Records
---
Amino acid sequence: MFDLFVNPWSLIAGLVLVSVPVIIHLINRMRYKRIRWAAMEFLLKAQKRMRRKMILEQLLLLLLRMLLVALMGLLVGRFMGCNDSLLGTDKRSTSHIVIIDDTPSMTDGFRSESGATSHAFEQAKKVLVEQIVPAAAQATTPQSLELTVLSDLKTTRSFERLNPTTNEEIRSYLGAFQANPIRVSPVAGLRRAQELIATQGARDVGRVVHFLSDFRAVDWSEDGEAIKQAVAELTAEGVQVHFVDVAHPFRKDEKRAPLHNDNVGILELRPAKLTVARYEPLEFVLRVKNFGAQELKDVRFAIKVNGDENKGRSVIIPTLSGNAEQTARFELTFDQVGTEEAPLDRFSLVSATLETGENGGIGADNVRHAVVEVRERLPILIVEGRPALRDQKDGDAFYLKRIFTNVLGGFSWVDGTPRDLEQLDLTNFSFILLVNVPGLSETAVQNLERYVRDGGGTGFFLGPDVNPRDYTKLLYRNGEGVFPVPLPDQPSPELSAEELLARKFRILEKKLVLRDPDVRKHPALNTLYTDERGNLSVKDAEQFEKYFGFVAIKRYWPVQRLGKWRDDPTITELYCLPNDQPMSAYEAEIRRITDGLPVEDPEFSRAKEVLTQLRDQLRRTALSSEPLSTLADQLDRLLADQRNEGDAAEALLREVWSHAKMADLRTEATRLRDRVKFGNPLYLAKEFGRGRVTAFLSTAGETWTDWPSEPPGNASYSPVISAMGNYLSGGGADENRSVGDTLTWSFDPTQYTATVGRTFLTHVPAKNGGRGTDPNPAPRVDLKEQTMVAQGGKLQLVFGETTQPGAYLFRLTALRASPAGGQSSEIPEYRAAVFNTDTVREGDLRRVSRDDVQLLAPGAQLHSPEETDWLEKLKNKKTDWSETGWIFLLLFLVLLAEQALAVRFSHHSRASDVDAAAPSAAAVMHRLSRTAMVPDAETVAKSV
Amino acid sequence: MDSDDPRRFLHPSTIAQIARLDLRARQVVEGFISGAHKSPFFGQSVEFVQHRDYVPGDDIRHLDWKVWSKTDKFYIKQFEAETNLRASLVVDTSESMLYGRGPMNKYEYACTAAACLAYLIIKQQDSAGLYSFGWEVKQAIPPRSNQRQLDAITKSLDLSRPSQQTAIRKVMRQVAESSPIRGMVIVFSDLLTDREDLFKALEMLRHRRHDVVVFHILDDDELTFPFSGMTKFEGLEEMPHLFCDPKALRQGYLEALEEYLVEVRRGLTRLGVDYTLIRTSDYLDAVLSRFLHMRMSDRASPVRR
């Protein structure tokens, strides 16, 4: 009982005082006046009449007065209430560990009630200095605080003894902090909290971890398990974990996920290749996502080159649906190349900035950078199997050279030999073409593999000189090597002249077939099939593929679709040959499948007509001498899985095939269709490490095919080769690095010195769209030199100081054997890496639901800045009713009631009121007596 | 009160300072009549009406000698008010009249009022008598009109001390019996007695065609009941005592009082009694002048018997 009061003795005093009104009442009864009274009759009557009412009223008044005293007693005794009996029981000192999330999503802006714009990070600071610290400072035990931000977990600031002074210190310390572009998982913060607790040792202190963040759903879905474990470990150690969700709108007690602001972010700005020739148009892919639900119109992006809008352009996405991604493609040319004086000019920084204003959302994801190295020309290395035939029409690379030097500008053609692959530093080459090379030495293969793995590109063209065993053994290496497929022992047999002629006349039959409709989006082909917004354009493709009817592939290496390579996801079969088997080979199978069609099945009665028609067609074709492509087309129609626009029967057929009992037949029919339709593979692509490989299983020259040379079929050759060139030189460009990531590059210690110069190049777009005012819109900041670490026989460049989005440029010093003598000379070499905000994770502002938090972090408590209850516990002191206004309100009400009753029972009346209440006759008399009415004498005389 | 106001001497507290009742009465009456043009008391109330023939036995004082000298015939001059007004002042001297916290208690006030009226009546040559009563008539002075009568009345009032209960019926019978001639009965009382007795008593007077005037004198305290704090009310006239919180009872008291006053007023009005309620704090001159006013207007009333 006494535990419920801060001052229990005051309670006793209060209890004693409760009797005071009674005592006063009794004393009043003892101390009375005596009046000799004439009008006793009325008094007795009144007493008789009012007795019961009087007693009730008096009792009520007495009780109210007693209640008043009791309330005063509670107030003075400082009653703490019956709940939260644990409050203020922790006699230990408390160590608070505060981790503030300062990732980009914390810049999620909102307009506060006062109209000022603020964002989640500011709110987090506010919660700390206005709620947590003041609450903790009220505690009676010593409170210390360790503060760290998520982006810089290594730096921890300690504040001993929380009080208003230290609160001011914290405020000014936090003042310097801004939300950071670096994304760090909340798990890292919780782990850091664990470390900090561990360093405190086994002291007997209360430990509280406060994690102030915006609790985005993406963090919790990705790292849910890790968070769960970290929280479980913390709570197991007796640590209180408080999560404060500072994002706007503030989380209420609802179970659902709270509302979140809309946001538009640039997911990716990717150049087709990292190194480009001067004035060569370079395609960029701008991938944008609308994280909000509202559709946006005419979303405009400014593309700047080195911060200069005049060199860039603007890109408009006409419609950006809610929760959808959109891709835009655009081309840029670059005119600035490095010189000896300014070697770093070789790097051009391309920045895309969202120009259309967005409501709320975060700003960090509205800018994205890419860096491109611009050279006068891009060197490509061509290794020919028959160097004797170099530059001759019969030679293997004759047509390639024409394309790369005449048709496509920007490449510098470097002829090489297989030996060069062993010796040269291949990284200087944009890509390497191996044309009809019989085989490579092991060193050459290793060198080539390393080159490709680091982002290089290699294109294989085969031919009669190729040694299939070498290729399979060294280059394919059971799927481990760069070459995508194992080669058969023999190339395809030579075709007879009649057969070639016959084929030539079948111009409607495409001699090159897309293996799968989806490969049209493959980077090695997508420039052929897609428009500038990345959409497939069917008409253009039809037009383009018409030329395939005139192409003749006379011989090739027939690779069987068998074995491991078929399941390798990095290998894509782009083009294959049509099937040139005779129709009779498939007759029986066609018969079996057409018999299996559910023509008579009442369940598919709607499709009966279509099915019957197709069945009859297929049977007729199987018996005819028509080319297999006809059969393949009909099977395509039957299977209806190629999305042929405009075919009315397609929907019906798809319905039929989607039925469960058709599954077996469908698999069988699909297999048959594929066998009928597709011959052997011809053109394949493989992603190897960060690099890219293509393999063309016929010759590059006209030895085995007339594709490069014979019009009109050759019209389609140079686009495919050009796309291949772009594909091969674009290796390594896919890397989407995020600020905060660590860059690791390995170098050969014999070829590089350990010192690396570093420069940071970025462009910060002016706010409110101010243009052209900055004289140096893309400043370069010297980051000083760094020494590489030798590890495992390699020099390792480990760069982890990426704190801002932009391009980080590195100057390496390569050791080269000088051409003159055996002396090696130092040649500077430059590399660049671009780091951007992690838009995929940070741009998604959806928030985790309270349920999920409870599920994933069972011991932790989730609060919002509007909640204050939990702060009471931080105070760790006995709080009582006197700190709330309620008891005062109650007191006031009771007082009011007491006064009202007292006045009503006329215990507080004034003298003037008495007159007013007097009986009417007396009042009249009284009033008359005051009007000084003096009658005239006559009246007086007559009246008596 | 303004120091230039001639009525300042008529305030109860001023009058209370005048010890002798006759002087008090003079103070009051002269005070309130002083503003009139002429004194009505010297003009007599005898107005000529007609002459009639002398018959033997008539008082020769009423012979009109001027007519005799011209006509040698005896005529009697007849006047409107031939007879004196016989006013009996009946003053309650029961114990209840003792109450009063102001400058005058009810009894003193009643005495002063009675003295004033006696003074007025005697001044205009009418006769006034006095009856003071409690359980029975204590003193009776039959109505006379000479100057000494006023002295007798004031002395008598001065000497009598309130005591005993009221037995108004018995007293009124005695008054009625001692006043065989029709006259005016002016009662000064707090009427704190049995209402039935009161009405019966006054009805008896009215029955004998007396013109009855009742001055109902109550103290301010009795009308407003302003007491607070625990109080023991000790009943006068052998009423029981009551210990109570007067504030709590005030409402009920006032209600009972109101009922009583209404009952009295109605009852007396029904009997044709001229009723006036007076508070001890009221200015006497105002009370008297109002009374005179009422009397004058009532005289014209055909209802009055």
---
Amino acid sequence: MQKIYGAIQAEGAELIAISSDTQAQVKRTTERIKADFPVLSDAERKTISAYNATDAFNRNIARPQYHIIDENGIVQWKFVDVRLAGRLDPAKILEALKAL
Amino acid sequence: MGRLNGQVEKIEATQINVRVLQDGKVIASVAADADGNYQIDGVAPGTYTIEIAAKGYETVSLTAWVIADQSTPLDRVALQALAVPVAHLRGFLADRVTKQPLENVRVQLIDDAGNVREVLTKATGSFEFENLQPDQRFTLAIEHDGYEKQEIAIEPIPATETAKLTRELVPIQQMEQLPIGDGLPVGAKAPDFSLPDGDGQLYSLADYIGQKRVVLVFYRGSW
């Protein structure tokens, strides 16, 4: 994700990552991937649940997905990965940001 | 239901707006036609105030008693030009999702002293506030069933000018429930959050609203 963060910013957007990891885990992840964008801890899974992003097979974690939220706070685009342990394809985000 | 009709002396190149108010609330809004005639159908029996307004002209108020199944003719009026310079505000409201104009939306204009004027949008989605005091701040409040409430600060409008405004109202989602894990439907309002990063610094979606688009990524984490 860090690789395309610059490209996302160039489209006038910001990137935020959320998982159910604890703050300590999030800190390790942030350092490991050298993230310049906020990587946030939703250990209580309130936000994951509010976005209907709970993994149906493991309710303790989020199912990988992107939401693009416009300046008015409206979801304009969404992509959910159907593969169980899949990695999201970041190029899709850039395509969508350009298209919207 | 009854009907109201009347005539206003026409004014060259100036639209004349006719508003029907009951207990201070606008219940109908039409524009007089090219000959200055207007008609409002489907008015419940009762007493109404009819406001006849045009840019730069003194607003005339009439009282009307509407009787069921009858037409109530109103006195013919001629509007007098205002002696003092005034400003105007014209706006257009549409649905954010369908992009269609929104009719009969109640729009209120509130000045710093708390005085409220209200109008309804026409079938074209447009609304007008004529004859405002120039160089004064206002707040525009828009409330409509099924849509999110909006409040907009109106910068002072210079005398004789008409400020223009276009706004989209956001429908309140009767949330289409997607299967669990499928995220929110496109068009949904994104719920706000306040979550810490690895150093405990809190981030909220609200910090970005009105500034930037946000790509929100949910990932599985290191479980």
